[in-house]
Design goal:
single chain, mainly alpha, about 120 residues
């Protein structure tokens, strides 16, 4: 894979992770807004921003798939899955037990392994 494709796949993974963090913020905001009205909850800025980011992420994914085989691009989604717990630890103070860190390291090693020629 070309470096630009790897960069785009990494950006895709980061956007997936960012979307999950935004959905977590949205969940707290929706809980507050729903007490006002359903519309207030549906128009939560965090929720709208997360949905917009996912729309942009889907567009990037479609572009990636025009350039990179699915079998080479899809493993990068696991990078997003590894980033979310790390971000949740730093942003929300969620715990990351050592076994979780080992699992994340294995996911990252697997990504490197499957990308080797």
């Amino acid at each position: 894979m070309r470096i630009v494709h790897i960069a785009m796949c990494c950006a895709f993974a980061a956007m997936l992770a960012g979307g999950q963090i935004m959905f977590k913020f949205a969940s707290a905001d929706v809980q507050v807004q729903i007490k006002r009205s359903l519309w207030a909850a549906l128009l939560s800025p965090w929720l709208l921003a997360a949905l917009f980011l996912y729309l942009v992420t889907a567009g990037l994914w479609i572009w990636i798939l025009t350039k990179v085989p699915l079998s080479r691009a899809y493993p990068f989604s696991m990078l997003g899955a590894a980033l979310v717990p790390v971000l949740a630890h730093y942003i929300f103070g969620e715990t990351l037990p050592p076994t979780f860190l080992i699992g994340i390291a294995l996911v990252l090693a697997g990504l490197v392994f499957v990308q080797m020629p």
